[in-house]
Amino acid sequence: MRILMMGAAVAVLAACGGGDEPSDADADTGTVAEQPAADGAAVLEPGDDFQARLQTMLIEAEEGSTITLPEGTFMMTDGLSLDVDGVTITGAGQGATILDFSGQRGSGEGLLITSDDVTLENFSIQETKGDGIKSKGADRIIYRDLTVEWLGDPDPENGAYGVYPVESTDVLVERVTVRGASDAGIYVGQSNNIIVRDSVAEKNVAGIEIENSTHAEVYGNVVTQNTGGVLVFDLPDLPVMGGNSTRIYNNDIYSNNTPNFAPPGNIVAGVPAGTGVIIMANDKVVVENNRFEDNQTVQVLITAYTEPFTDEDYNPLPRNVVVKGNTYGTGGNNPDGRLAEIAPLLGGSLPPIVWDGVTRWGENEDIDNNIVIDEGEGVGFINIGFGTYPMDLANVSPSMERPGGEAFGELEPVTLSHSE
User: Fold this and answer.
1) What is the DSSP string of 62-77?
2) In sequence order, what DSSP letters do the residues of 88-107 get, joined into one string?
């Protein structure tokens, strides 16, 4: 992938003439030569061939350097890539520096990072054909004060992910806004040591998703108008599995009722509209001190993985889940998807917390999922009581009795080596 991206970048530069040294003739036609700032940062000036000059700077950047983007809206026709360690890319601010990919050729991401110790801050990306910003194998990366968005109504043709770090250690996402992703607005996958905080995820299929990852904290975020708010998943057949130790706390998770617009076949295409938090097949997950309101299917859903799989190392059941100290407004009054089939059995609506009750898969023996519901007596809970999977409504044995799980202890705070 890295070779392909570099090849594409070289092709763009050749087509645009951006690989040539600027000359006096360039100045006459409006092309502006880049000048180093007083502190040694490379400052990209507006003007002709902006995209080609930016990609040149990304290719030629030195470790520890800063690339400063100017204020303005700049049209991009191809994706950008960075493969140099220790680079900071900074703009004039969210909404002040905008990289507009509405004319992008192909279906790749807007910006691809494949190097370590990179900071991305103070700019916006719009209308990419693929993912907004993707980083792969990029340790100690910082996404800060960024906006990634697709404008207009929800559209399955929008890019899948807004902010998309994967296969990384030490990931910080803070004060980021993502709108309109057809999969997940903020997604962290197959990674370790993660903080997602003080961000806004709205009008995506999934607002924030932590998938096949370990040691994550998601806090201080506003998650609204998505199909599903916060997802903590573990999936089979991936290079990194065994997701565990995620804490979701002090978030505002409300009005996540947008009809699902994920492309068919996508794993999140099955997320019911109106879901606040979904914990699926993950281990050691804590949901506490969040504020839930107006999630019309369910505020918190604890569920097994629901698709067939052949991965013998995969555990499809949620284990060691703690839900405590949250506040719940209205919700559960208009269930969607498979849960809409369950609601009539319960009087037409669902309580704030729902567990599917799957304790056994196939021919395996029952396990103790160790589900802990430590909420006030007035907070409703139901164990649907499927027992085994595949699910069969004929086998449902619902119970409002809270499971007798025991808290597994405190999760260690996530500390990042590259950030306070």
Assistant:
1) PTT-EEEPPSEEEE-S
2) EEE-S-TTTEEEE-TT--SS
CB atoms within 10 A of CB 27: 12
What pTM was computed for the model? 0.90
Domain ranges for the chain, please list them: 2-395
Residue 156: band (very low, low, confident or very high) from pLDDT cuts 50, 70, 90:
very high
DSSP code of 394?
Answer: G
**48-67 per-position pLDDT tens digit:** 999 999 999 999 999 999 99
Residues 93-119: b if buried by 16+ CB within 10 A, e if exposed: ebeebbbbbeebeeebbbbbbbbbbbb
The one-letter code for the residue type at 232 is: V
Q: Which DSSP letter does residue 216 get?
A: E
Peptide bond into 390 cis (omega under 30): yes
Query: What whole-number distance in Å separates Cα of residue 261 and Cα of residue 273?
Result: 10
Domain 2-395 = CATH 2.60.40: no
Q: Which helix (H) or strand (E) holds 287?
A: strand 283-288
Q: Are the CB atoms for 299 and 272 separated by under 8 Å?
A: no
In this structure, is the dihedral angle defined by the CA atoms of residues 13, 19, 25 and 28, taken in order, positive or negative? Answer: positive
Q: How many residues does the chain have?
A: 420
Nearest CA to 134 out of 302, 311, 303, 1 is that of 1
Q: What pLDDT shows up at residue 35? A: 54
Closest C-alpha to 15, from 23, 25, 7: 7
Decide if pLDDT at 230 tops 50: yes
Among 231, 279, 275, 233, CA closest to 256:
275
pLDDT band, very low/low/confident/very high, at 27 (cuts 50, 70, 90): very low
Q: Which residues make beta-bridge pairs with 44?
A: none
Pairing mode of beta strands 42-43, 35-36: antiparallel
26 vs 21: CA distance, rounded Å: 9
CB-neighbour burial class of residue 148 (10 A; exposed 0-12, middle 13-18, buried 19+): buried
Question: Can you tell me the mean pLDDT for 87-106?
Answer: 96
The per-residue DSSP string of 140-206 comes to TEEEEEEEEE--SS--TTS-SEEEEEES-EEEEEES-EEE--SSEEEEEES-EEEEEES-EEESSSE
Tell me the backbone φ, ψ of residue 270, rounded to 5 degrees: -90, 0
Give the model's pLDDT for residue 389: 77
Coil vs helix vs strand at 232:
strand
